[in-house]
Amino acid sequence: MNKNYIILTALMIVLAGGLLVVPERQKYQQIGPDELLWEIIQPTRYVSTDKVAQLIIEGDPSLELVDVRPTADYEKFSLPKSINIPLDSLLQESYQDYLGIDGMKVLFFSNDDIKADQAWVLAKRLGYDNIYVMKGGLNCWIRTIIQPKKPSTDSPSTEFALYDFRKGAQMYFTGAKTETSEKSSNKKAVKIQRKKKKTAASGGC
Amino acid sequence: MKKHKIKNYPHYINPYFGGLLLGILIIVTVYITGRGLGASGAVKSAVVTSVDVVSSSHAEESAFYSKFISDDHSPMYNWLVFESIGIFIGGLLSGAIFGRIKKFRVEHSPKITSKTRLIGAAVGGILFGFGSQFGRGCTSGAALSGTATFSFGGMIVMFGIFGTGYAVAYFFRKLWI
Amino acid sequence: MGPLIPNGILTGNWDFVIALLLGIAFGFVLEASGFSSSRNLAGVFYGYNFVVLRVFFTAVIVAMVGLLYFDYFGWLEMDKIFILPTYLTPMITGSVVMGFGFIIGGFCPGTSYTAIAIGKLDALVFTGGLFLGIFLFSEAFPLFQDFYYSGDMGSPTITDMLGISAQWIAFAFVVIALAAFWITWIIEKRVRKNITPYKF
């Protein structure tokens, strides 16, 4: 009888003491790997630049644009009304408030969509929903919205409708921010080529 | 009379085992509902319901009752009421299993009469009911569940109840020993 | 993961079934541990029966340590669970009044329900007293409304107030409780020599 109690006493102390010595645990809640893989292969996380332009023009209040490039780049040029959360500080506590707001769609973008995709995966693993990536990033934004190409004459009429929309969007954005389009144009050249290979399957960018 | 083998102590489960079960029950309760157990809340619901039935206007005017009255459902339609019904059934179950359910009786120290014990119980009940409102819960809700969930107020109530109990035990010893 | 109901994993329809089941488990443990006898309960204050202390503190330390492990393994979000608010002065007053109620009445609300279940009339009277006490309180509420809401400190945890981490608090509770178990075991043996066994 007495011996059992001594064992139980020791057990309880060990259990309680265990809490003191276990290493501090990261409190990030992660979603399971299966779920993450499933989500990653879904194309639904991508939003085309045209759609983004439309949402911005319409003034969708539930859209939260998040620029994940370094702050220096963000200050040079970014989308209107976007906020800047550099990729390497996405996990910081102070930025967590921007994600996972009820009813808000969070759209990540960077120059191409690699960094934005990384941000998306990180946020997804933290369990946030309603997060998206702007397909093609700012490079694509410039090619499609800021400097749209006129489709060749034998293109289907939908191409022309899209072109008309892009022209309108171009006026909306460049009219409001004239200098930015110039500044950003020199950024364009470098990364486009690489990215094109990666996402060859989809249209647009 | 079988259970009077060891002197006349009835068959209770080992208190530490009981405590372990109760501790696990608190964890399960918190895990499922996000809050601990309670008991006095059910009586409060009963009081509010009774007052509401007897004089609805009085209940609505009162700053206290009106906090617990809703148009959607009766104040008895409450988590703690169901839980307390459960406590009663659980007691019934355990009493039946261990053979403790007997005809109605008053348990008291041989030095006092049944009447004294009943008066004590009534006075104690009134005090407990009164105090539980200020304490935001009774022994189960505030002291036990509160402390177990690391609430500062819960710990205050726990020390308050047991501290007072020990401090004044001497003056009421005739009631018990 | 947990808590299940606040996190919407279990929907509201199950609330009352769960309440009933948890209540049954609670009542069963209370009764089976001997909390349905007021003489058992009061024994803790006179040293002849420490069952209250044993059950109560075992439950507290098991729950504390268990909850911290649940938190550690990420099964339970501790910041989503309900923390009893603290109203310092009314709570101290209330607990002192309850302390008197306990020693005079010999029950607390939960235990009195189980005692009624096994046929204790004193428990029935105690519950009647509870009803009356809360009724008197409610009727007289305007008199001490200000006092009732005084000392509002929000819902601080012990960690918030004392600045000690929850792990250390749990550890301290465990050590104190275990020490108390051993000490009271010795006290009880001594006291019981001088006391006539009582009938239940």
Which key terms come to mind for this protein?
heterotrimer, B: 177 residues, mainly alpha, 2 domains, 8 helices, globular, disordered N terminus, C: 200 residues, 9 helices, 0% strand
Protein architecture, described:
The complex is a heterotrimer of chains A (205), B (177) and C (200). With 205 residues, chain A is α/β, with parallel strands linked by helices. Chain A is 54% helix and 9% strand. Chain A is built from nine helices and five strands. A five-stranded parallel sheet of chain A has the order 1-5-4-2-3. Chain A is elongated, with a radius of gyration of 24 Å. Chain B folds into two domains: 1-102, no CATH class; 104-177, no CATH class. Chain B has helices at residues 15-33, 40-54, 56-61, 79-97, 114-134, 139-148, 152-169, 173-176. Chain B starts with 14 loop residues before the first helix and ends with a helix. In chain B, α2 crosses α4. Helices cover 66% and strands 0% of the residues of chain C. Chain C has nine helices and no strands. Chain C has helices spanning 15-32, 38-46, 51-72, 88-105, 109-117, 121-139, 145-148, 158-162, 166-193. The longest helix of chain C has 28 residues, at 166-193. Chains in contact: A-C, B-C. At the B-C interface, α1, α2, α4, α5 and α6 of B face α1, α2, α3, α4 and α5 of C.
SSE layout and pairings?
The complex is a heterotrimer of chains A (205), B (177) and C (200).
Chain A: H1 2-21, H2 33-40, E1 46-47, H3 49-58, E2 63-67, H4 71-76, E3 83-84, H5 93-96, E4 105-109, H6 114-125, E5 131-134, H7 137-146, H8 157-176, H9 178-198
Helix pairs in contact in A: 3-8, 7-9, 8-9
Chain B: H1 15-33, H2 40-54, H3 56-61, H4 79-97, H5 114-134, H6 139-148, H7 152-169, H8 173-176
Helix pairs in contact in B: 2-4, 6-7
Chain C: H1 15-32, H2 38-46, H3 51-72, H4 88-105, H5 109-117, H6 121-139, H7 145-148, H8 158-162, H9 166-193
